[in-house]
Design goal:
Chain A: It holds the Pfam family BPD_transp_1. The complex is a heterodimer of chains A (307) and B (294). Chain A is mostly helical and 307 residues long. Chain A has helices spanning 18-23, 27-54, 71-77, 80-112, 116-131, 134-144, 151-158, 173-199, 202-210, 215-226, 228-244, 247-251, 262-271, 276-305; strands at residues 57-58, 66-67. In chain A, a hairpin with a 7-residue loop joins strand 1 (57-58) and strand 2. In chain A, helix 3 packs across helix 14 (276-305) and helix 9 (202-210) runs antiparallel to helix 10 (215-226). Chain A starts with 17 loop residues before the first helix and ends with a helix. Chain B has 294 residues and is mainly α. In chain B, a hairpin with a 2-residue loop joins strand 1 (79-80) and strand 2. Chain B has a two-stranded antiparallel sheet. Classes of the chains: A mainly alpha (307), B mainly alpha (294). At the A-B interface, helix 2, helix 4, helix 5, helix 6 and helix 7 of A face helix 2, helix 5, helix 6, helix 7 and helix 11 of B.
């Protein structure tokens, strides 16, 4: 760089003095970078560091933290509360993603056959629950799920089916929440998939049709491979979203710990039983699980579209 | 010749322009599905206008027997731990508007800085910001609470605003967008003697309108609907935001008179509904554009 002939407007001048070094940079850029770094230091680096540090300590928020080495993590391995919470989180997450994505794909496929005007209008209806605050949705569904005089049981009885306990039953409570979450996010997921389907060139589908490919074959051999990136994106954001979901589990809990997930468990440990060290350990475990799930999914999907 | 033209016309005809009975069946099914989606929502709206005797009826009836505004009057005068629904309304609007404006400024400026300006550690800093999105909020929840305690922000509205003034997602989105703005525009302004900040305010912000509206909706939704963070940091009812006030009303009335819960839910939904109907087009386009689920 120092031997470049003639001054270049984009290249930095050879560094000689601090002044010269500074002059190659933008003051606005440096000011922004400084405030950004300060913000992330206080709002991310320190809290994340504290979370890791705290997971090796016991702290009740009042007395001084006590260093306990890896005992929190050892406790975690033998804690049925943790494993139950993990099992609930995974069950909820997998079923929600599978059901919501299948329905969203069907919806997006159906919508893709309509004119854009109809697409937008129908999407607006399917998207309505997405804009509602989670608390509103949960309070509403909690009421619809009531055992006595709930709207859902009224429907079941009107078609001659027995009334269900819904959220009152440890076997059904988690799936009641799952159904509600599918309802909330269905429209949102289908927007992403619809955008991808609309991008599939019609000429490819026409060519396949001329070659005598059936509608099913056209879907599996043309559309599906081409929307893989959108599907992968949807799966990954859904993993992140469902694993961290909190409102339904706190406001519409099933009996006992039947719907306690990792996020609710972390909250309870930190803010109800004030076992902050152990709560931090659970939250670190959650971070590791989420990161592994995301990376695993990305890796798995990447194989299928790298061709 | 004519045959070729019709062939071409047929080949370039999108699927949706071939009206067949299947298309109508499809529309019918989709509208049916739309009714299923709207069904819970119908309960919310109609129950808000019911009288207490009407709401506890078994089996329940969707349509109110007699339309009444009683539930609205009761919840608007109801005290929620030292605050009220009206108070929470003001708090929510204040927090949401402030946060959205802050996020829009930091994200557009950040996108511009990271894409076009030179400063030390530019790339490492950007990838660091991006990587923070991989850490779940639940992991940061407990220590962030401690930090806010040390900063003496707990139980003020600022605790809801300060941690969100920079948005990793917003900076990422804007950076991608600024890369799409032709470099010539930037260079021309530079040659005319415009400073970095002038270029930002005069050129970049104006060109970023599509991404700004998308970001505004996402940011609005995230802030207005947030529940966990206010739940942890706000204990004084006077500083409750709407989700917390709703939870309070659910605790007070949920056991016997749900019309009050539905009435306050309906009132809470007004701001998101307004934003939704103004920006619905942008939202769809924006999600399609960015491929982001908010």
């Amino acid at each position: 760089m120092a031997v470049t002939a003639g001054p270049s407007p984009t290249d930095a001048a050879p560094v000689r003095s601090p002044r010269a070094w500074l002059s190659q940079y933008s003051w606005l850029g440096m000011g922004f970078a400084f405030s950004l770094s300060l913000f992330y230091l206080i709002m991310f680096v320190i809290p994340f560091g504290t979370a890791i540090w705290l997971s090796f300590n016991n702290w009740d928020y009042i007395q001084k933290p006590v260093f306990v080495n890896t005992r929190n993590f050892e406790k975690l391995l033998g804690d049925s509360g943790f494993w139950d919470a993990l099992w609930n989180t995974v069950r909820f997450s997998v079923v929600e993603i599978f059901v919501a994505l299948s329905l969203a794909l069907l919806l997006a496929l159906a919508l893709s056959h309509l004119r854009p005007v109809y697409q937008y209008t129908l999407l607006a209806i399917y998207n309505l629950p997405v804009i509602m605050p989670g608390v509103v949705s949960v309070l509403l569904w909690k009421w619809l799920y009531r055992t006595n005089g709930g709207a859902f049981n009224a429907i079941l009885e009107s078609v001659g089916l027995p009334a269900q306990p819904f959220s009152k039953s440890p076997d059904q409570a988690l799936w009641c929440i799952t159904l509600m979450v599918v309802w909330i996010f269905l429209g949102n997921s289908s927007i992403v998939l619809l955008a991808a389907i609309n991008e599939v060139p019609d000429s490819l589908l026409e060519a396949a049709q001329l070659d005598g490919a059936s509608a099913w074959k056209r879907f599996t051999a043309v559309t599906l491979p081409l929307i893989q990136p959108a599907m992968a994106y949807q799966v990954v954001t859904s993993i992140i979203g469902t694993m961290q979901m909190f409102e339904p589990f706190q406001l519409m809990p099933g009996p006992g710990h039947s719907t306690r997930t990792l996020s609710l468990y972390t909250y309870q440990l930190g803010f109800e039983v004030l076992n902050l060290g152990y709560g931090a350990a659970v939250s670190i475990a959650m971070f590791v699980i989420l990161l592994s799930a995301t990376l695993f999914e990305l890796q798995r999907r990447r194989k299928s579209w790298d061709y | 010749m004519t045959a070729t033209t019709t062939d071409l016309a047929r080949l370039s005809t999108p699927y949706w322009q071939r009206t067949r009975w299947q298309t109508w069946l499809l529309i019918a099914v989709l509208i049916g599905g739309g009714f299923v989606m709207l069904y819970p929502f119908a309960w919310l709206v109609l129950s808000a206008f019911k009288l207490p005797a009407d709401i506890i009826r078994i089996p329940p009836t969707l349509w109110p027997e007699e339309w009444s505004l009683e539930a609205f009057q009761v919840v608007l005068s109801h005290k929620i731990g030292g605050g009220s629904l009206t108070r929470s309304y003001i708090n929510s609007i204040f927090v949401t508007v402030t946060t959205v404006i802050a996020v829009l400024i930091t994200s557009t400026l950040g996108g511009y800085c990271f894409a076009r300006l030179r400063f030390p550690l530019r790339e490492p800093l950007f990838y660091f910001v991006l990587s923070t999105t991989m850490v779940p909020f639940l992991t940061l929840l407990i220590p962030l609470y401690v930090v806010m305690d040390r900063l003496e922000l707990l139980n003020t509205l600022w605790v809801l605003i300060v941690p969100s003034v920079f948005s990793s997602f917003g900076i990422f989105l804007c950076r991608q967008f600024v890369y799409g703005i032709p470099l010539e525009l930037y260079d021309a302004a530079k040659i005319d003697g415009a400073g970095d900040f002038t270029i930002y305010t005069r050129i970049i912000v104006g060109m970023m309108k599509p991404v700004i509206s998308v970001l505004a909706i996402f940011s609005f939704r995230a802030t207005f609907n947030d529940y966990l963070w206010p739940l942890v940091t706000i204990t004084d009812g006077g500083n409750y935001t709407l989700p917390l006030a709703l939870r309070g009303i659910g605790n007070s009335f949920g056991w016997f008179d749900y019309s009050k819960v539905m009435a306050s839910s309906l009132l809470t939904l007004i701001p998101p509904l307004i934003v939704f109907f103004i920006f619905q087009r942008n939202l769809v386009k924006g999600i399609a554009l960015t491929g982001i689920k908010g």
